[in-house]
Amino acid sequence: MTPITEQSSLYDQLENKSVEELTRYINQEDAKVAKVIEGVLPSVNNLITAIVDKLKAGGRMFYLGAGSGGRLSVLDVIELPTTYGLPKGIYNTVLAGGIDRLADALEEKEDDVDEGWNALVNAGINSGDIVVGISASGTTPFVLEGLKKCRLLNITTGCIVSNPSTPISAQSDYPVEVVTGPEFITGSTRMKCGTAQKMLFDMISTTVMIRIGRIEGNNMINVKLINDKILDRGVKMLMQKAEIESYDEAKSILLEHGTVKNALDKVTNRHN
Question: Span 41-57, mean pLDDT?
């Protein structure tokens, strides 16, 4: 049986369609993604809870991926140290071909059965960590073999796949099967599968960061002050939360302590 991700598009003779028709059809397909994710939220919640538990216990999170999904996971992970002040090395991606070759799209590397596991070993993977495989097909050898070896060593596993009952799901303690149907371009899983993956990465990492205390209220109190826009946001956040009237005073305090959280702890003596 042909995997759903490889089944023929619901649309044909695309070269004869107008721009208006093409964008309307693509939008119709994209509109299906959020509804599919809604249907698998219980599985997503289970995976998130497992990640939170590992991180709170001092463990680490690793995405293990190839292709478009793997590259999207890299983009998610690299945002976290800046947005949430998360120390590097806690939330990670192991990408087929290496993160340093991200732009090269080394698709042939997804068939390498050793590279993923070797990279995890080099990172010191252990039973306190969790590894989440990313594979639209649910069969990618790079991901599958890595998860198999994890399970042999009692390392917790999860996955995000786009076909039901896949080999990768079978090797996952916390599988998420987000089946979005045939792609607009037959087999082009950078489209709906990629959209679903991006939405899930945002959902998972944001919820995890909230649950491990990197957010207060709805504010990024641990954000790194890397540019003028973020510094201004941080100053206004501190002014509001610490009831400081002077912008310049709040800015001086914030720059002295490095993050809104540290400044708040100092100014309001929240831990006394």
Answer: 98
